[in-house]
Every structure is written in structure tokens, then in C-alpha cells.
Batch of 2 targets.
Target 1
Amino acid sequence: MKSPGLRAYAIGYLIFLYAPIALLPIFAFNDSRIIAFPLSGFTTNWFAEMWADRQLWRALQNSLIISGSTAVIATVLGVFGARASTRYAFPGKGGLVGLIMLPLVLPEMIVAMSLLVVLLAISVPLSIFTVILGHVLITTPFAVAILSSAFQSLDKSLEEAAYDLGEGPVSTFRLIILPLVAPGIISSLLICFTISLDEFIIAYFLAGADTVLSSYIYSQFRFPAKVPAMLALGTILVLVSVTLLSIAEFFRRRGIAKTGGKDTGGFL
Amino acid sequence: MARSTSALGRSEARSGLLMISPTALYAVLLLAAPLATVVIYSLATGGRGVITWDFSLANYVEVWTGPVYRAIMLRSLIVALSVTVVTVVIAYPIAYFVSFHVAPSKKSLWLFLITIPFWTSYLIRVFLWKVILGYNGVINSGLLGIGIIDEPLTWINYNVGALVVTLAHAYAPFAILPIFVALEKIDRSLLEAGQDLGESKLRTFWRVTLPLSMGGVIAAVLIVFIPTIGDYVTPDLIGGGKLPMIANMMEVQMLKINNKPLGSAIAVSAMLIVALLSLAFVLVNRRFLGPAR
């Protein structure tokens, strides 16, 4: 179909989307502490400065603990939620599923503040553990959404065949269902991990004295001298998330191919 | 037979409830209970950490009538609504293009390209706009360098417009996906029918495609509006702390002034605004689709 106008618009739109991100590597390699044109020369100093930053490594370590735990817990909770909502009919289903999915339509600040009020009221010390609690809450809806589509595309007769052949519910789940939804599980893990790693509000308000990557970046933005090193970090983060997402996309497509579905594209 | 069916139904209900219980319990303990706590807190009065349980609506009166709060809530609404309109209007043609003019085998590549920026650090993207729009930023230094302007532009930084541009960029992919999904579901033969019956392309779009995709548009509106009205980072970084929005006001009351009841009343008010506007969007959509059905 011919539509040169629309195509040009779409390409312009992609440029608008990517232009700010394209500035990251430009200024991460630029030999000046001031982020402005004209460029003053090539340097890898900012990467070296970032690499030598001990606090950054500690923040990264905390973030990886949080994101890893969040991804696993949210995906496990997501399996239960998605399985229940795709396979069973039960009273109160709409309300319970609605509650589980609610964080998708609540501003994050409200989730963070209401959790904070309760945690302070029952004097739970703030730490990376409380951040995990919050992150699991906001990533579970994504896990449920991704896994629901994986469970939905399951052919129910495969499961029935396993029952007819004498397998119990647990072994059916392990032998038939789990392998078929495995790609969904992997993409859920990766996406929950990415969301948790990037999340700022909850990490900022619920971490107490612990620093995580996003709150560390935020605090560094206050010091103009630290900005180039943060842009270097940003460059690396972009590369990492593109890689993770490409892997997630690969597994999502393989999952669709495995269950014999048609690729409709997209994560959500 | 009827008995065995109902027994089966009951066991299915039990299995279903059992299956969902870990996830649901988590949401009840960490979401429903905290939200209920915030509602209860909002009815108390206090300040500087002292809380009096007098169950009054005093906080709400203050939040809804105090000039400072009203100005901040109005700003949040204006920013969120402008971001929503801008984002959805520029997103629609993209969703339309990918759905109608891209070969099916290339659709997921396009969607992938569109969603990638969304998965890259939100903080860094917002900060980049500060760098781009700032007084000594990329645009100003670039334009000064090539001699188009003599002194830095001031109308591009530290104002509501800068907030809107930054947020519109941050939430752009959010708007495309639901519209795209709605467009994909449209039966293409309806469009052919419209044109066979003598409608022009534009009129077919106006009378068939657009109404059928309104569900996706409303979903896009909600997906963009809800997080933007509660955004914390952009007013802080781009507005330089001079253009606070609801979330910043919540932080000040909850933590800096330590008046949790008032902070809670702001949180509940924000939830009410979000819920009412969401309901309004959905109802307007029903009305819009009404005569067509």
C-alpha cells in the first residue's frame, strides 16, 4: 500500500523517540563536563570515572538483589494468578483479579506512600527488603498479563490427555503445562527484572538508608560535575535493556511458535 | 447429573480460589490494607508527627479549598490532560500506519522499535530532556553555535510546556499499543463495504475506523493520564522544583512536614480525581459509540 505521508510521519516519530537517547553516547564520549554543543573531543574518561565509583557498585549490587528477587517472586505469584484466571471460574474472581491488576492503574506515588505509611506505622525498618515488597506488588500485574496469554494459548485437550493417561495434577503441570509456558515464564522474569531495575519512586522512598541504582543516579544529577559519568552509565544501561528485551522477544516468539499461535506482536 | 455438575462447580471454585490465593493475599496485605490505612489516616488530624484521631473532614476541606493546594492540583490536571491529548493525537497515526500500512511480517519489528525507548531508564530519559531544553542546554548551545539566536531561549525551559514535552515523550509508546490492538481487531471487510457503498476513504475512516478504534483510544488515554498526573520525577527535574505537582505535594506533607493525615487526604483526593476522570472518559466513549450500535 502507498502512503508516503504516513510513512514519513512514522519515521519522524521514531526520530523523536530516539533523539534524546542518541544524545547519551554523544555526550558520554564527549571530553567536557558541560553537556552542550559544540563537542570538544573524544574521551573514555567518564566510563573510567563511573567504573571506579565504589558507591555506584554498591548501589548496583543492591539493585540486582532487588530486581532478581522481584522477578522470581512476581513471576511465581503471576503463575498462580494467571493460571487461576485463565483456567478456573470461581466466585469473586473479577474483584480479586481486579485487585491484583490495580497497581497498573494507580499512580506509583500513591502505592509508594500508602506502603510507606503502613511500614512506618508498624515500624518495619526501611531497606532493600521493603523495596522488594513494593516492586513485587507493581510487577505482578505484568507477570499475570504475560503469563495469562501464555496459559490462554494452551490447548486444554493436551492437559486432559495427560489426565486420561493417568498423570496427577502436579505431574501434569510439571510435564505438560510448565514446558509449554516456559517461554512465557522467561519473558515474565526478564520484563519484571527490567521494570524493577528501572523503577525509581518506590526504590527512592522505601529503601531507607540503602542506595539503589535509580536513586543513586537521581542523587548524582544534583551535581553537574557527576553528570557525564551518569550519561556513560546510561549508555551502558540502554545497551543492557535492549539486550534483555531482545532475549525476551525471542522467547516470546518461540513460545508462540511452540503453542502454534499466530504472532500478533508486542509485549502487552 | 445436576448434582454432580454443581459438585464439580464447587470443586472448581475451590481449586480456583486456592490457586489465586497466594497472589490475591499478597495484593490484599500490601495494597488493599495500605490503601485502607491511608483513607483512615486522612480522617485524622495532625502535624509534625503528632496524630489526633478525631475523624473529621478537615484535611479534605483544606486540600480542596486552600489556594496552594488548588493551584498545584490544577497544574497537575492541566499537565496531565495536555500530555494525554498530545500523546494520543500523535500516537494515533503511528498505530494506524503500523496496523494498516505495514506488512504483517514486519509489524512486530515496528512495535519492537516503538517500545524499546520505553524500556530504557525513565530517569535518564527525563534528565536528557532537562539537558536538551535547559538554559545552557543542547538546543540553546546548538542554536547559539550556528548563529540562529543571539541569546539562550528562555521559553523552552522551566515551564509547563517543558513538563508536557518531557512527559509526552516518556509515555508515547504507552499510547500506541492499545490503539494498535483496537485497530488490528477491525474487520477489514467493513472498510471495503464502506467504500463499495460509495463513501470516500476519509469518510470511511471517520465513520467506521475511528468509532471502532475508540475503545483503544480510551485505553490509551487512561494509560497515559493516570501515571502522568501522579508523576514525581519530571516536576522535580524539569520544573527545577518550582512547578510541583500532586506527587511532590504528597512527599512534602508525608515526609518533610510530617503531616501524614493531610498527605493521606491528598493521596485519596488524587485517587478520587483519577477514578472520576477515568469514569468520565469511559462514559463519554459509551455515549460516542451509542448511536452507532
Target 2
Amino acid sequence: MNQNKQPGMSLIVQTVARWLKGFIFLYGVYIIFYGHLSPGGGFAGGVIVASTFVLLTLAFGKERSLGKLGKLLASELDSLGALMFLLIAVLGIAWGRIFFLNFIEKAVPTGNFKLFSAGIIPLCNVAIGIKVAASLFMIFIILAVIRVQEVKGRRRLVTTEKRRKE
Amino acid sequence: MVEIIISVFLVFMVIGALIALETTDLLSSVISIGAVGFALSICFLLVGAPDIAITQMVVEVLSLVILIRATIRHDLTTIDGDRDFFGLMATLALIFALLLLGLPAFLSLPPFGTPAMSQMMESPARHYLSGGLRETGAANIVASVILDYRAYDTLGEATVLFTSILGALAILRVYSRKKKS
């Protein structure tokens, strides 16, 4: 499938990326889930999760990361995150006639092993995290796929897939 | 003390932005923009906004990677073209006029470090600070504001992101679906 001589970067970068990708992903998930207790939240965590896939793309080439998170799946996840956020908002109307009503029971966070204390706030963080991660990864893929090439004396945008076929 | 450090960082950011504008090499321009972003992140940290500092930092890293990967590796390495003298002067005059007009507003600002919202007794900020933990159960006050009290704003923000990415995908997609079949 890969006709390039180097599908990614050097062996050192690939090894480090193989070790670190799980930790970076986990850190992003941590930032998302603890957004209501410590600094962070859906936006920051989503960007960190997206950067995992960007790291995979840079280190191993496009096919590897697209095999894990395809373009179609990314766009579906993007829409899913947005719809989930909207659904939480509309559920507030169904519960108490208020848009974005915090309808889940709230408690002051005390003690260990009580992560979900803030009602809908962690759910909103998860929705935003999914959305931001998928959309930023899509932007990166789209920008990395397109190349500017001189074709017949004019600068044109060409995809790498097209160039490989030629 | 914090004000002095922030002032130093502000001067650094202005210099970095000027370098990014004036240099002819695209790579140094992108790196200067990255330096400006990191200095801004440290400024956010110093004034006590770790949420925004984290977001600024990770977005800066990702956008730097995207800029380098998506623009630098092509043959667009130089920026050419002179700046129009009349346009530059007009811009400077306009900025100076706006600064003169905005000077009274600067003078009426509260001193550094005192939030303007908390000066009124019945302000919403006071209510959020005093009752945010009890009413929402979120220890992070910022999360309780952006996702509970002001969640409608966040919905608008998410919509802006969704729409911008829709537009970017529609513009940047080179091949159409009909051609493929």
C-alpha cells in the first residue's frame, strides 16, 4: 500500500511514539473527566486526544492513524459529540422546562472515588471532548493530505493519493 | 511583581509578533508565532487562569505542528511583496486615533487584579463565587460557569467550531464525490 520509501519518521521517533501514545491519550481522557474538579475540560482534553492521533500520523504515516480513526468515523464522532451536547441541553427542557437544566442529582464532591459529582457537567465535558478531538484530527488529516504542486506552471492543490496514482 | 513579569512577557510577545510579520522565511515566522503563544500561556498562568493556560498551550502545540506540517513542507518558503506605504500609514493613523478615543476607557478601569464584576453587590460573579460549589457540585468554578450557568454560550462556541470545521472541510476537499464514482 505504501509506495513511499519512508512512511513515517525515523526508528527513534517511532519507538518513542509507540511508548508514549497511550500515556498521552490517557492524559487527555483524564483532563476531560476531571474537568469539573481541576483545571482543564472538554476543549483542552479533546485537543490532547487529537494530538495523539497527530503523533501517530507524523510518526507512522497516514495509513496507520487512518486505520485507527478513519475519516468517516471521525466525521461521525464529530457529529455525535455535537448531538450529545445538544441532547443533554434538550433533556433539561424535558425534565424541568429549562434549557441546560442540571437535572442529575448534584453533590458537593467529598472523599475519594466520587468522580461524578456535578450533574451534567462531566457529561458535557465528554461530549465536547469527543467533538473537539474528532474535528481537530479531521482538520489535520485534510491539511496533511493536500499538497501544493506546480502543475503546468501553475500552483494547484493536489492530494497525495492522486499523486501516487500518477 | 506579577505586573512587571507580565509586562516583560508582553514586550516579548510584541517583539515576537513583529519578527513573525517582518521575516521572509515562513518557518521562522511560524516559530515566532509559537513563541508568542507560549508567552501568552504563561501570562494566563500568572493572572490565575490555569484552564485557559492549558487550553492555550495544547492548542498552540497542535497548531504549530499543523502549520509546520501543512505549510512548510511545500514549496511556499518565502514571503515576497512590499508593503503599501499609504496603507501602512493609514492603518497607523487609524490605530492612533482609536487609542486616543479609548484612553478615557483605560483610565476608568479598576486597578489591576480587582475584577470589575465583583464591585457591584448584586453581580452574578459574586453569586457564582459564593454558591457555585453548592449549586452545581463542581469544584472547578470555571467548569460550573461555562457548563452550568452559562452553558448556552458554550453551545454557541461548539456550534462555531462545528461550522468552521464544516466550512474548512468543504473548501479544502479537493476531489468531489461525483468525480470519484
